[in-house]
Structure formats: structure tokens, C-alpha cells
Amino acid sequence: MIIINSKDRILDVALQLFIRNGYRGTSLNDIADQAGLTKGGVYHYFSSKDDLYYQAVKRFFDFSQPGWLDNTDVEIKELIWQGFQSIKDRKKWIKDLVGVDSNDAILHFYMFLYDATRRYPELQKDIDQHDEAKRKKLAKVFRQAQQEGKIREDVNPEVIAFELDALLQQLEYLSFVNPNIYQDSNMYQRLFDNYWLRLKK
């Protein structure tokens, strides 16, 4: 039997409710009820709603590299394809995080990000640093692929790293809101094929 620490349980419940309903739309009573605790039980770990919100948000912003960049030792073409494929996993992760099994999940998710980074501007810096780390890792991989003669040498590794990161982030959003993306099972393959045509030697 797995025993989950009450504080961790509260943070998990609070994060989902804050993402789904917003700060104003979530009460400590809501969190306590869903966590199976009393409001006093929540106050045992957190001094206020603001304290709980901040800790839940910080928990969310403890970044790690996206899974498709965990192993960059694969062929460059396969790595890029993994990036396109990762959008499906990311979409499921967002739906699970929000607790909404519909494309509306992205609206809750982005509103949460907007609110959190406006309340705590330092978190926007965390996002920027996280994205920069991704792009540096990608640029290193692209540079190595150029040296090995696997992709064109007349493209700037930093620029194509930025471009790919931006493209995947935009496709993540479109996977929720654009029927051409979420209703066409072959769209990612076609987008990847077109992207690869521009890079291969």
C-alpha cells in the first residue's frame, strides 16, 4: 500500500484546481474537500491560500528537459521526429494535469500560466531559462549533425534550434484548437517530412 504524504496530496489537488478554476475560482474548502482533509488540515501545512498557491505553482515550475530530448544520441532525423511525436504525449499530459478530457484544457492551462507569471514575474524568467536550455541543447545537436555531414551546413544551428522549439510549441497549442491538426492522424508526419526536407543534405 502506497501512503501519500498529506502535504504532497494537498499540493497535487491544489495545483489541478488552480489550473482548472483559477486562483479566484478555487477556495481552501474546495482543496480540503478534494484532498480528503479539513480546512484546518490544510492550514497545518500552509499559512494561507497565497502560500499554498505559491508552493503549488513552484512545484509546477520545477522544470526538466522534455522527454524527447532525454536521449540525443539517436540519429538527428529520428530525434526531430521524436519532437513532433512528443506533442501527442504533451497534449495528454496537459489534459491530465487540468483534469479536463477535452480540448478546452488548453484554455485553462494557458490562463494558469499567464496568471502565475504575472503574480510571480520570476517564474517567467524560469520559463525563459528553461526554453533557452532546450535551444542550446538542440543547437549543439544540430552543430554536431552538420559536422558529421547529416544536415545542411548553410543553416545556423542556433536559429534552427529556436525555429524548431517555436514550431513544436505552436503545434502543441494547435493540437487543441485546430481541427486540421487534431482530426488528421497523418498531419504530424507530413509536417515533419516537410521540415526535414529543408534540413537534409
Automatic annotation (TrEMBL):
<dbReference type="Pfam" id="PF16925">
    <property type="entry name" value="TetR_C_13"/>
</dbReference>
<keyword id="KW-0804">Transcription</keyword>
<keyword id="KW-0805">Transcription regulation</keyword>
<dbReference type="InterPro" id="IPR001647">
    <property type="entry name" value="HTH_TetR"/>
</dbReference>
<dbReference type="InterPro" id="IPR023772">
    <property type="entry name" value="DNA-bd_HTH_TetR-type_CS"/>
</dbReference>
<protein>
    <submittedName>
        <fullName>AcrR family transcriptional regulator</fullName>
    </submittedName>
</protein>
<dbReference type="InterPro" id="IPR036271">
    <property type="entry name" value="Tet_transcr_reg_TetR-rel_C_sf"/>
</dbReference>
<dbReference type="GO" id="GO:0003677">
    <property type="term" value="F:DNA binding"/>
</dbReference>
<dbReference type="Pfam" id="PF00440">
    <property type="entry name" value="TetR_N"/>
</dbReference>
<dbReference type="InterPro" id="IPR009057">
    <property type="entry name" value="Homeodomain-like_sf"/>
</dbReference>
<feature type="domain" description="HTH tetR-type">
    <location>
        <begin position="4"/>
        <end position="64"/>
    </location>
</feature>
<dbReference type="InterPro" id="IPR011075">
    <property type="entry name" value="TetR_C"/>
</dbReference>
<feature type="DNA-binding region" description="H-T-H motif">
    <location>
        <begin position="27"/>
        <end position="46"/>
    </location>
</feature>
<keyword id="KW-0238">DNA-binding</keyword>
